[in-house]
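batch_manifest entry 22 of 60
target: Sodium/hydrogen exchanger
source organism: Oceanithermus profundus
requested by: lab member K.T.
priority: normal
notes from requester: please return tokens only, no post-processing; we will run our own comparison against the previous entry in this batch. if the run fails, retry once and flag.
--- input ---
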Amino acid sequence: MPHEQALLLTISWAVGLGLAAQLVAHRLRIPAIVLLLVTGVLAGPSVLGWVHPEYMGEGLGVLVKLAVAVILFEGALSLRLEDLRRAASEVRGLITTGVVVTWVLATLAAYALAGFTWPLAILFGSLMTVTGPTVVQPLLRRVRVPRKLKAILEGEAILVDPVGAVLAVAVMDVVLGLSGAHPLTWYGAVWAYFGRLLTGGAVGAVGALLLSRLFRRHDWVPLELRNLVALAGVWVAFAAAEALLPEAGLMAAVAMGLVFQRSEVPEERRLRHFKEQLTVLGISVLFILLAADLPLAVVREAGWPAVWTALVLALVVRPLAVAAATWRSPLSWREKFFVAWIGPRGIVAASVASLFALALRGAGIPGGDALLAAVFVTIFVTVTLAGLTAPWVARLLGLTRRTGKLAILVGAGPLARKVGQLMKEHGRQVVLIDRNQSLVWAARRAGLEAVLGNALEEDTLASVGADEAETLLAATTNAEVNVLAVAIAREEFHTARAYPVVDAKGVSAEMVEQIGGQIAFGRPIDIRDWEHALNYEPVVTLEWPVPEGFAGGAVGQLELPDFLLPLVRLRGEEAEIVHAAQTWSRGERVVFVARAPEDEVRAALDALAQG
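--- output ---
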């Protein structure tokens, strides 16, 4: 087969198989990287022979660097700086004390368990100091934990990548220097680390300032070219840092993302969305290519010692490093345990290890392939362990409770204010959004946080924390607007618990099902009529304990009188908005509002209890 055709097939297979693995992982709700690694090994020369990374030559290393630049830039761009400031002490401890402890203990584990020589073990230990936003961020989208925990894990993953990777590169320089591959001095070794961080940080900051200044001039960069100009800017800054000092580009990408998001750039959310898509593509292709480039015989040779080393890193080294880094932190033991449990390695460890294997091979130093195999085994073990067990561990530790979680209410009319007050009374953080200034003022007078804005604009939702919101209720008087707001929340912010209030006129149940939502309060209602009643009529509010043996089915199937409207379900300390697919069971309480005398309401609830 001609080389050109073989290269074309390799790239095509890598893209196709990578995205197919992403789709299957999404369907099965498992970490995508696990499938990507398995698929890459199976598609590589050792098994099926569909993907041949060796045909790419030095181009594979260039592709890896460019993709990692986009991945790190997108991760830094998505990191909420306000949350990072609240978690600053914990993140600082993890990327300083945590890195040192991990390096030392991982080195000892590699020497004792994997049988590495000391130089190789030290190099492996430095590689294990990174975690990776490409694994941590998707995982945290599936596990709803408190915002501070999320900020700690994301902040560590994004900032430790350049810190750990540059450390590994500096250690590599020392290993090569001691082997005689190139001259080595003590000040050269120090500059190899701190020089790369400083150079990369400066280049990234300057690049971000220039790019943001360019974007604020609407007449210079048309909207349709902004995403591509930003991509070019990231790669130019990355290349400039690399030209000044090899491997300084990692820090440049992170610094550029952090500085750029502080610059109040118009249409930043669209740019972030574009970068997220590029990140998914980059991760998919890279893991297929890098896994295919790993000879299966080398993995077999690494065998159980590599597996035991990976397990020790996950179950012993990571907890000790987190304990040392957070021993003065006010985090509870449950929160520290969860942080210690989430330490998967990602694309940066894989890509740097691949480059190291080539460098060691070129310098005539044995062990490069064994190092690469141990790194890939560690990635597979840590990603599988964290990805498959994180939701269960979070629930076991009580970190997924909805108490204190953010609920966004679209609309600030009487109905939304009533729901907001109920949610707030039971420990939920609530913010209302409305375009009507008088309704916003009314909500604030009622003691609720309210924002003037259009909830159909992504920037407005993002500004009130939609990325972190656990619940969204769209309760304006316009049912079409409510459905559209829920669609945006679900599609753009992955808000699973998003419910529209609808009427029986313009919006059908099928329309709500198409966006994957559920009708709020269980049924269509006359929104304006209820708004008027809450404003001007005597409305009864009461709490109904669900009786033993209640088997009424989903709320949407209950036959409730028109004058009775269930708003909030209380389960222990948790408050959740009632919706059509919700079911009630003994021990729970439901808060109703009713436009009828209390004795008539009680009679209706007694009839409901009896089925």
